[in-house]
Amino acid sequence: MGTNRNLLTVILGGGAGTRLFPLTRMRSKPAVPLGGKYRLVDIPVSNCINSDITKIFVLTQYNSASLNRHIARTYRFSQFSDGFVEILAAEQTPESPQWFQGTADAVRQVLPHIGDWQIDTLLILSGDHLYRMDYRQFLKRHHDTGADVTVSVIPCAREEAEDFGLLKTDEAGRITEFREKPKGAALEEMRVDTQAFGLDADEAARRPYLASMGIYVFNYQRLEQLLAQDTAWVDFGREVIPAAIKCCNVQAFLFNGYWEDIGTIAAFHAANLAMTSTLPHFNLFDAEAPIYTRARYLPPSKLHHCEIHDSIISEGCIINQSTIRRSIIGLRGRIERGAQIEDTYLMGADYYQSIDEMRVDTEAGTPRVGVGEGAIIRRAIIDKNTRIGANVHLVNERGIENYDAEDGSFYIRDRIIIIPKNGTIKDGTVV
User: Fold this and answer.
1) Which helix (DSSP H) or strand (DSSP E) does residue 357 occupy?
2) 76 to 50, 87, 88, 89, 100: CA distances (angstroms)
3) Residue 31 and residue 11 in contact, taking contact as beta carbons nearer than 8 Å
4) Domain ranges in the chain?
5) Domain 2-274, CATH 3.40.50.620 — does that match?
6) Is the pLDDT of residue 127 over 90?
7) What is the reported pTM?
8) Which of 111, 124, 202, 276 is close enough to 216 for a disulfide, judged by CB 3.0 to 4.6 Å?
9) What is the pLDDT of residues 332-364, one digit of tens each?
10) Is 375 exposed, middle or buried (0-12, 13-18, 19+ CB in 10 A)?
11) Dihedral angle at the C-alpha atoms of 15, 46, 264, 283, nearest 10 degrees?
């Protein structure tokens, strides 16, 4: 633990999360539910805890209420430790009257809070990536090379490369060039021989680009100097890192594990359902490095006469005579008989309805929280506390790519049907 005493972590909560709308309509991106019982922010926080890093700030500015609640209830360290996980929300001060303008601006605005800790190293992480990393190796590389800045990079193929900041290094791994999302000829110029980073010849031919993961280690003093150099710089990838390459020792750290940027609905849906595979890329069953989340003390799930294939069922579910294929059923999920659910992430509910509440709903003709009898749901994301009526068909048979229902009751993104949080779909509805 001694080596990490002068180290602090900042997890960037991201912007408004428009690409993940409507999942971000009522919550910030780091608070979006993941894998049935977790939230996105649990991934970088757990990576930190598993790397013996326990001073963590989470930066946020949009819809932070549920994230604040989750962090406060989940991450409480012993009173004998100096560890903490705290939210730093965007705040207006005389020096900076506006909100966070970008990743670098967010860190610049919270420097007064960070400076109080007299640290020498700052680890900057993103709040919406799915991966497991031991940051101790990352930090070792940073200290061994005497770097001012170290950027975590991942080798990638041409079709992915256009979406990332790409970089080139010399033989020693020092970064010599950085370009944000290059296209065409500019993209070709960023090719490197990734064999130098330990990939075999075939793999190096398939993945000839080094993409920045948006994860950095900074010498804290150097970071302060860089952010003060030009207050118009608001983004690490676009402005700060290219400027640092010109004046500082900027090193690359190669990460060659599974890493997924889950910033879009399609990527989010695919990454969640991939966890149901026999040998998933992102394995929740890792005793050495568990993913932490809020302990809820729910009863085990109860299943009556169900047929379930390749799925994850979280705690506290009640499922009757249903067929579930390649799906994730979140906490307190209720599914009535005859329901068929396929390729779907059902996020579950924050509460159980009492018998009285259910009776009131039935008398009013309102579906209960959960999935009603005979409902058929395919390729969908059903957010929390939703009420899906009896014989509802959410199947997108016409294969519509993108659509917003006028009443906001459902959305379609990349052909995936999304029912927003607290939504109601009346009996017999067909989408």
Assistant:
1) helix 355-364
2) 15, 13, 16, 19, 27
3) no
4) 2-274, 302-425
5) no
6) no
7) 0.93
8) 124
9) 999 999 999 999 999 999 999 999 999 999 999
10) buried
11) 180
